[in-house]
Amino acid sequence: MSQKTVVIKGTKDGISIILRRHSDFNTIKNSIFEKLQKGGEFFRGGQARLLVKEGYISQEEMEQLEMMLKEFGLNLKKDPPLYTVPYPNPPQPETLVLKKTLRSGQRISYSGNVVIVGDANPGSEIIAKGDILVFGALQGMAHAGADGDVNSIVAAYRLQPTQLRIADVISRPPEGKNIIPQVPEIARLKDGVIIIEPLCLP
Description:
This protein is mainly β. It folds into two domains: 6-83, Cell-division inhibitor MinC, N-terminal domain (Transcription Regulator spoIIAA, 2-Layer Sandwich); 95-198, Pectate Lyase C-like. The chain is built from two helices and 16 strands. The strands form three sheets. It has a six-stranded mixed beta sheet, with no helix packed on it. Helix 2 (59-71) links the parallel strand 3 (47-53) and strand 4. Helix 1 (25-39) packs parallel to helix 2 (59-71).
């Protein structure tokens, strides 16, 4: 069920206005106006407190709301509005940790980072919008930055993928060569090309 942009709740002193900033300010302002207009004289003489969820109200927007509330006989409390979620608050990619070996035919697809504590055998697939880290041998297909993030990386103790992708760039191992890495390696994009280099651990 979708959440309303504006919710007005009555209190013993007046009203509480709860905002969810999924819409632009004019839409929110019009929504408050319509709700107060329907209330007629009911709110007159009371006080209003502002609670902001998932958004931010600027000083200029606060002043506009205050003027509108006065038209309906309401006084906006002078204490700062209450914020439940800071804005902007960009989401951080979550990490999926799997303590297992991926067998042939198994496919992992995740919207964040993927960490495999084990091997990824030939025929397995790992697709992540973030980074891919394998604490073992990576011998299947790995696609990091599947949503287009060119800064994503793929790293493994033994990096031997049948196919390696970062964002939209694809790399395959040379045919006829099966070189076993002696050190952990990391694959990343540089100048639009996937490069593989030793992973320097601290």
